[in-house]
Write a structure and sequence with these properties.
Elements: E1 11-12, H1 46-73, E2 77-82, E3 87-96, E4 101-109, E5 112-120, E6 124-129
Parallel strand pairs: 1-3
Antiparallel strand pairs: 2-3, 2-6, 3-4, 4-5
């Protein structure tokens, strides 16, 4: 793997929810933490364990690359492709803790410029930026 991140990725914190403890998400919603399931069988072959650890290392490497790409985007002009073929550009600022929303500024849309905005990651098909 690469060297540790020198600068942490900027995080946008959502306001507290109505219960005063949450960050606006329902505790039983799709973002709720998954409870670990008890394994049905403790008898795993060494080959399967090895394959699972390889998959875990691959997922960790992909996650690290994604977080590094977010860090590289900070302060840069980013082009986003949204659903229905809509193309917008903006200066990337930060992401929330769950990487569900991107905070951007100077969002240039087909109907005008928005000074600041939150883009839902579920609406984004792809994004590009120059290094």
């Amino acid at each position: 793997m690469q060297t540790p991140l020198a600068v942490p990725v900027p995080v946008l914190r959502l306001p507290r929810g109505p219960d005063g403890l949450s960050r606006g998400f329902a505790p039983d919603g799709r973002r709720a933490r998954l409870k670990p399931e008890a394994p049905e069988s403790q008898e795993c072959s060494v080959g399967q364990e090895s394959q699972e650890s390889q998959e875990q290392r691959a997922r960790a490497a992909l996650r690290e690359r994604y977080l590094r790409s977010l860090l590289a985007m900070v302060g840069r002009q980013v082009s986003f492709t949204l659903h229905e073929g809509v193309h917008v550009t903006a200066h990337f600022g930060a992401t929330d803790l769950d990487v569900a929303n991107f905070y951007v500024s100077q969002l240039q849309t087909p109907i005008g410029v928005q000074a600041e905005a939150l883009l839902r990651c579920s609406d984004i098909i792809s994004y590009t930026f120059e290094l």
